[in-house]
Amino acid sequence: MSRHTSLVPAPLAQIPWRVILLVSAISGFGLVVLYSAAGGSLKPWAWSQGIRFVFFLGIALLISRVREDQLKAVSFPLYAILIVLLIAVEMFGFVGGGSRRWLDLGFIRLQPSEFMKLAIILVLARFYDMLPAGEIRRWSAIWPAAILIGLPFMLVMTQPDLGTSLMIVAGGMTVMFLAGLPLRLFIGGAAALGAALPIALSMMHEYQRNRVEIFLNPESDPLGTGYHIIQSKIAIGSGGIFGKGFLRGTQSHLDYLPEGHTDFVFATMAEEWGLVGGVGLIIAFFLVVRWGMQVANCSRTRFGRLAAAGLTTTIFFYVAINLMMVMGLAPVVGIPLPLVSFGGSAMMTVLFCLGMLMALDRAAKERK
Amino acid sequence: MKIVPMKRPSRLVTAQSQAFSFTRRAFVLGAAQGAVATLLAGRMAWLSIAENERYQMLSESNRVQLTLVPPRRGWIVDRHGKPIAINRTSFRVDLIPDRLRDPDRIIAELRQLLALTAEDVERIREGLAKAAGYQPVPVLENMDYERFAAVSVRQAELPGVAPASGNARYYPAGSAVGHLVGYVGPASAADYEKTRDPLFITPGFKVGKEGLEKTMEPWLRGTAGAKRTEVTARGRLVRELTTRPEVVGNTLQLTIDAGLQEYAARRLGDNSGSVVVIDTETGGILTMASMPAYDPNSFSDGISHSEWQMLSGNDHIPLMNKVMQGLYPPGSTVKPATALAVLEAGIDPAETVLCTGSYRLGTGLFHCHKRGGHGHLNLNGAIAQSCDIYFYTMGRRIGIDRIAAVARKLGLGSSFPLPVPSQRYGTVPDTEWKQRKYKADWTVADTLNATIGQGYMLANPLQLAVMAARIASGRALSPRLIANRRYPPQGDPLDIDPEHLAMIRQAMSDVVNGAGTAGRSRLPVEGVLMAGKTGTAQVRRITRAERARGGKFGGMGVPWKYRDHALFICFAPVENPRYAAAVVIEHGISGSGTAGPIARDVLTYLYDPAKAMATLAALEEEWGGDIATRMRVEADRWRAERSAPPPPAPVEASAPADKSASPTPAPGADSEPRE
User: Fold this and answer.
1) Across the interface, do A296 and B26 touch by the CB < 8 Å criterion?
2) What digits encode the pLDDT tens for the residues B251-267?
């Protein structure tokens, strides 16, 4: 776009239209799927989801106007506020679906753990940006990061929300990895994690442990929790290459597929659009992620690089974990498919991510 | 962090190496992301291409529910096409144990919705405890539409409850045909496990459990229809896709005359007994009634434990088909056969024997039923008067083996090719038989007992009727139940001199129409004469002391189960017989007093139904209503007794319970000749 600077006003030219188009296409396709999931109706999902998308895209464009040093400056305060809010959720939070996640502020239901996914990236990027290069292989590069990750992890885990807490850890670890921490830490950490898995299992909530067990063998409980995975695989598998056709999915329309408009929306889509639709969606998401990684690579600052790569990876984790879940490659952890699943949280997080990525992209281009 | 400015020079170098490290690691990360994307696309391709067929099938089996439509059973009709077993549309509710959550709550709700009785609840709980998870347990059948609708609209709140409209078996004549047709019921778990036919676990599907319903099952069943419907995960029907109509089972036409069958059953009253009527032209069984009987309607609807207890505890054995499973000493009804053997042995029928009332054999004394004796009697007189002494004398002269041969020719001791679950064929004893069975030599006393149908000799009522039919027709008729146009008038001529048979027929006519023992059993029908033979069979040994004491040994004065059996065989008309019959009344005291009149009324029905019905109406008024009414009263009384504290032990209960309560007393225990 920068080649055409002379033809369009600068602020407009700076907007990465290609990625916005991509994101809009994904969301638009999502609306089509939601329209079908409602049995060929805009209500109750597609219409409100469309409005929500426009609204959050607007906010994302506003965020894209933020300067990099402003992002840098808000990192720690934002993180601190969210920690306080997470504690508040723990104390006064709204209990829904067996866990405390929301804070009802009267006019809005706030889910601080959702913002924490972004804040953890920013705060770690900021931390490693501040950390002198020579310190990177020292202990002082590890323990502050461990605390920064550990604190929200524990708070979200006690809600309990396994999916989000794992995503916070994954996001944080990605930034640590990119920051240049010694590789043996990650290898050793992975080994330790493997050893600690049984202990973690014993500490999990009953339903969380069930989900993991049933993931390993969904047929063991075909009418209980394993039902989700089985029905999702049936929906995807029965779609074939070209799908059963728009509005003709039986798994979703006859309610065999649970959560067909939220967490398992990909299965709803795959049933009607088949492998073609599925691979198309995967490619679209991959292009978004690749664009984010390019932003990171083009960034001139350490903060910009780490933040851009971390934020991109957050989007990636969202998509990857959800798709692995619906295809039976990961346990059912309750992570929606961003931009497609009905619901505001994931869409908000991902669009805020994009907003910040666009801001960092602009910063990188301006610095050129 | 204030050290940052101081480190600036060295940081430039490391910052560069850090930037390089970032690029490298970012590349690794990007590659990993690409790999995951590829993995996901690959996984999806695997699911939707390689496993497409399997998942498509699973998706179809989700979407499409295949419901079997149980076929309507073929009707069972009588010889005139009058229905004996039909189907009625019925509303029913079943429980599917596998889908049942919280059975206590569901049963409580159903109890309220369907107004179930405590007995129903007891039966349902029993069924649930016994049934394999996939087997439907009937809750209630044949209910009115209002109650059915009340359950249907709440189906979503009642998981495991399956309301269905279908067809239920109905037997208009109720217990009158109970033993003849049997009953139907849900297939057992064993049936299902053998064939894995899903029809067997479809609610409302019934298989024959007893009688003709069981033996003719393949003919009657038909082929199930199927209905493919699209349903949601919650079981809501979206639309019907295709249906394959059921094929109704074949109609089964019997040789039975439904009117006569019902009449005979009713005429038996409260007696424990049976009536068999055979068409002497075709061998077709016109009536085969065994009473008391269970009501096949209530059996087919499922019967509670207490109902079962009531039936199985009854000393009149309503659960047994006495026509083919009751074995009785034929008593004097065997005398025509013995007489035939005497004739066949070449003895002059005019030869007389002096009856003084007793017959001495060694030290033993054999009695005639007439204490003072009959005086001089020839063969005809001996049959008409049922003189025992004549048959002792002649039987002893010709020997048991000749008598046994004729008895077998007449059908005693044989089983017939009939579609019934089981037949007992009794005993026609002879020297070889005793040697085989008891490793003992045949004695003259054995012969004397056999000549009058006591001792080892045992027969079932069907055999007695066949005997009458063979004497009447002179042909080796074989009884049949299934009407078939292709059946010719059957039976080869018996290997017995027709003149001898005519003599016996005349003698049997004299029993009824002459100066014989069954004078009161004459047919009240103008121009139709019935021939017959009475029989009164002892069921226990009469000791010398008892005989010395005098009085009745098997009559009203003794407990029911020690009373004599009453038997009667007959045929009509005397010239060119059309019908033959046998009546056996357990512990009925007297063949001429109890069995004969029943045979008379049953045969009267064939000629003059109105007259016969008038007789019956008067009797039923005396007895307290028709069969159904009396059964209901009986059941109420039984229930009341069970709930009340046990009454003082009745007199009969003090008698030692032994085999004599069964209609098959041990051979040899019947008539003890020695004094």
Assistant:
1) yes
2) 999 999 999 999 999 99
